[in-house]
Write a structure and sequence with these properties.
By secondary structure, the chain is of the alpha+beta class. The chain has ten helices and ten strands. It folds into two domains: 160 residues, Jelly Rolls (Sandwich), CATH 2.60.120.280; 108 residues, Orthogonal Bundle (Arc Repressor Mutant, subunit A). The strands form two sheets. Strands 1-2-9-4-7-10 form a six-stranded antiparallel sheet, covered by helices on one side. It has a four-stranded antiparallel sheet with strand order 3-8-5-6, with no helix packed on it. Helix 1 runs parallel beside helix 3, helix 2 runs antiparallel to helix 3 and helix 7 crosses helix 10.
């Protein structure tokens, strides 16, 4: 494998699950990254060697330290201060992918991974090999189309869930999933209107408090968080594939106040809508290759 590979994914049309960057790295002894805060989920799978991950769950607390060895992985969740560094005598080599999307949190919750439990350990050797194969495939095939890559990203997360020793059995059963899907369908239809969590609960004929619990159990995010991220995902797509004024885009995604829209967008993506457009503007919508 190339000791260093780096690739970017620039197609913003995928809302449920999308990627940003991916690659591999053969690190030098004590090579480190951070402290830093990520805007998206970042997962590393350690192919050989070892290193350490440090996570600050709160700014006023000492960082939690996690040793990570070959065959394990670690998740960096957006919004947390993290640092990771290679071992001094046996530095790690890893493959990594940065991703996000409306259902990314749901998949990671099922795998039992979070900022508080960031270390992936495989349940068995066979599952570990299967997951490693999926991770290495994307690194070794940078010529995939965007659709092919998103398909393999789903396979990676599916293998991650299957292989994880922390895998959770999602509680709540079919009824919770049914109500959550009803709410998501409602959001897809009316996100451009000033809808609220109360409107979603009313659509499902549920008490607001109970609806919030049911939705979070099924999706891994609160209804309000999901609505905001859905609107911002729609906005990011409009920013990159159209020339519509930002004032028009914010109205089309349910924000009559442009200042409120800009604040919400920056909370999700870490930069302003204008800067996002400058960094991600696509010349043609039909562009298919990753690079």
């Amino acid at each position: 494998m190339n000791p260093h590979s780096f690739h970017m994914f620039s197609d913003t049309r995928f809302l449920d699950l999308t990627a940003y960057q991916y690659g591999s790295e053969q690190c030098k002894p004590l090579y480190s990254y951070g402290p830093a805060i990520r805007n998206h989920y970042l997962f590393h799978y350690v192919l050989s060697g070892q290193g350490t991950l440090e996570v600050n769950l709160k700014n006023d607390e000492k960082a939690a330290c996690y040793p990570v060895r070959a065959g394990q992985g670690f998740l960096i969740e957006p919004g947390y201060i993290t640092t990771y560094y290679a071992d001094g005598s046996n530095p790690w080599e890893y493959a990594w992918v940065e991703f996000d999307g409306l259902r990314a949190g749901e998949f990671l919750e099922e795998a039992g991974l979070s900022a508080a439990c960031p270390i992936f350990s495989p349940a068995c050797a066979e599952a570990s090999r299967s997951f490693a194969s999926e991770m290495l495939y994307i690194v070794e095939h940078p010529d995939m189309t965007c659709r092919q890559f998103i398909g393999h990203l789903y396979l990676i997360l599916d293998a991650l869930i299957d292989a994880s020793s922390r895998r959770k059995k999602i509680q709540g059963g079919k009824l919770s999933r049914f109500y959550a899907q009803e709410a998501i369908t409602f959001i897809e239809q009316f996100y451009s209107s000033p809808i609220t969590v109360e409107d979603m609960a009313g659509h499902c004929n549920l008490d607001r408090s109970y609806f919030g619990k049911v939705f979070k159990t099924a999706i891994g995010q609160s209804p309000q968080e999901f609505l905001i991220r859905f609107r911002m995902a729609k906005a990011s797509s409009l920013l990159t594939v159209t020339d519509l004024p930002i004032s028009t885009i914010c109205e089309q995604v349910g924000y009559p106040n442009q200042l409120h829209f800009s604040r919400a967008f920056k909370n999700v993506y870490g930069i302003s809508p204008r800067t996002y457009r400058q960094n991600h503007k696509q010349i043609t919508v039909a562009s298919d290759p990753l690079l």
